[in-house]
Each structure stands twice: as C-alpha cells, then as structure tokens.
Amino acid sequence: MEKVPDHGSCFVCGANNPKSIGVEWYLVDGNQISTNFVFTDNHQGPPGFAHGGATAAILDEAMGLAIWYSGYHVVTAKLSVNYRKPVPLGTTVQINGRLSERTDRRIIARGEILLPDGSIAVSAEGLYAEAIHFYLNGANNVGEVPK
C-alpha cells in the first residue's frame, strides 16, 4: 500500500485547500484506491450522518484516481450513486475505487463506502472520458495532476 500524493487545491484531498474534505488516499495493487476515513460534523447531511453529496464526491475521486493510476487521464462523464445505508458521523469507514471496464470508447469504474461491519453503505459507478487536454497541459506522468 502506497500513499497517493495530495492534489494541491483538490476539493476532496487537497492539502492546500482549507475547505478540502481532507481524504488521504492509498494505492493498492498498483491500480486500486482505498482509504479509511471518518466523516465529521463538517460533512453532515441529516443529523448524525454524512451528506450524500460528500459521499458522492469522495467516491468520484476514488474511482477517478483508480483510473488515473491505471494510466488514463480522465474526467467524469456520468456518475451513478446508490445510497443503501446512512453513513454515520464519527465512525471509521473504508472507501474503495477501482477500474472495472475499459473499451475503445469508455472507461468504467466502481467504488463503495463500507461500514465497519463490512456492509456497503454507498456504492457508485462512474463513466469516465479520456481528457487529452490533461496531456497537453503538462500532466504526462501517472499521478501528476495538471495545474
């Protein structure tokens, strides 16, 4: 497991962003992203539980990073999120993202937020489009984020 460098001002994981959600990511097996995270009062939606938008943003980032570390520079084209169980604040949850399918025209990733008992609280599937402009702006290495 290798810690993924933060992305400067990223809304989800940027160390230079004082309003960042504050997630620290880890690369597992070269192309899967995982972390343990505790949602706090700053991420609250319904009283005592994480906001659905916060969970969706985090899953989008996990899946996008998994694709990025698989060698593709992408942007999100479509995100589908299934809310199965509420995510309690103050509880350590596991967040995972992985590339699940690559064809000539599309890249699909899947992610989930797991509760301490291993059950899936939130799952997501994302359709990602390659973004050639990332290559043109100097992000030529996997893991390097364009400025």
Structure overview:
This protein is α+β, with helices and mostly antiparallel strands and 147 residues long. The protein has two helices and seven strands; from the N terminus they run βββαββββα. Strands 1-2-3-5-6-7-4 form a seven-stranded antiparallel beta sheet, covered by helices on one side. Strand 5 (92-102) and strand 6 form a beta hairpin. The chain starts with a strand and ends in an 11-residue tail after the last helix.
Rg of Cα set: 15 Å
Uncertain segments of ≥5 residues (pLDDT<50)?
140-147
Q: What share of residues are in beta strands?
A: 35-45%
Largest sheet data: 7 strands, antiparallel
> Average pLDDT value?
87
Strand order of the largest sheet: 1-2-3-5-6-7-4
Give the helices and strands as they follow along the chain. EEEHEEEEH
The number of helical runs is 2
User: Overall 3D geometry?
Assistant: globular
For the termini, the CA-CA separation is: 26 Å
Helix content: 10-25%
Let me know the number of strands: 7
Structural class: alpha+beta
